[in-house]
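Revision sheet: structure tokens.
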Amino acid sequence: MKSHPGPEQLALFAGNDLNFWPALQVRIHLYGCAQCASEVAVLRSARQELHDRADELPEDLDWSLLEAEMSANIRLGLSAGAIVGRPVVLEPAPVPEAAGWRLAVVLASLSFVAAAGWWLRNPANLRPIADPAAAVLSEARPDGLALQNHGAALTLLNHSKQPAVTTVSWDGGARASFVDSETGQVTIHHVSAQ
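Predicted:
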């Protein structure tokens, strides 16, 4: 370490609460610095004295009440310290927002919806499938998955009664997961059209 460790680091080191690398750095520093080593020794002795006196506390002491009081005092001290250290700045009164930008956003949104509606209603923009019989059909059935194309069909059958999960994707693929009720084995069928 190029400089002395802070009081927080020394206190954490004295209580064995410092992480490995920072503790190693402090330990190396203590070999060469008698001042910090004596401060750690004082902290350790104070800690041991508190530990020894812990048995002398009254038995009817309510720890939860004491904890609540200490937390409240700490919060109060932090709040007071933040207020005292903060410079007082008088802010100007807020200016009411103009509604012009809201109107522009609403008009732009309505324009977009109108243009999209016109484009979709225009028959020239809609392209029908050239040959509906040439389309690939993916189907998830209760007994498996089926794929049909040009009159040919492929069916993956499963002996389970119902698939646990069935999905059909936009690109013509289908997927079904079947769970065997006797063994708990999961079978996944996945077909896709290309």
